[in-house]
Amino acid sequence: MQNIKGKVVVITGASSGMGKAIAEELAKNGAKVVLGARRIEQLQQLVEEIKSKGGEATFVQIDVKNKADLFRLVNTAVEQYGKFDVIVNNAGVSQLSRIDELDIDGWEEMIDINLKGVLYGMAAAIPVFKQQQSGHIVNIISTSGIKIVPMQGVYAGTKNAVRTIAEAFRQESDGNIRITGISPGFVKTDFADNIKNEEMKTAIQKGMEQIAIDPIAIANAVMYAVSQPDDVEIGDIVIRPSKQN
């Protein structure tokens, strides 16, 4: 983990759940974290917690649906620390329903956050990484899409789009910019809170109670990926509860 010390890491969706765990663990290991999310109070609290433990952190209120916000987040990292090493595209949302229920608003929200939000993060990071001739993109994806199931069609579609784009980018890259995809299964987060379909919300919450793993497992995977030497790229990591089908 020595390679983590001093790295400047930007994290989206950092106010709770996996994003929060990733921020805490990286800061504990000496990274300087720049946190972005919509919920300003939670961000402030997290930054204070990290600083109280001797870590370095700052935050920017952002919405990943606005590409200008992602550029502002990345610029904050560069202005504050003079460089920027890793972007963790973690912000995500899920609206689970049958396709014939035609939850078009839900589809658009998932496309805007899960897909375009990741692309905006990459678009903000890549010019800086090119200039530095180094950088690392970490996309938090999902086990949805690895296993296709009903009710998750569009959600899985947005996640698989990220997987496809990342693989193309990996092949296009000359190795200076590395890219890693981490696909979590059931993780203890507030992920289900935004689901409008009550039946699905209850099912997901029940699944989380019974088998979900601690978000620290995802944070450990991020640390493993970003702590590798410059000539080593970790491609795809799938992390799910051992009981998950």
UniProtKB/TrEMBL annotation:
One of its GO terms (molecular function) is oxidoreductase activity, acting on the CH-OH group of donors, NAD or NADP as acceptor. The keyword Oxidoreductase applies. Keywords: Oxidoreductase. InterPro entries: NAD(P)-bd_dom_sf, Sc_DH/Rdtase_CS, SDR_fam. Pfam families: adh_short. Belongs to the short-chain dehydrogenases/reductases (SDR) family. This is Oxidoreductase. It comes from Chryseobacterium formosense.
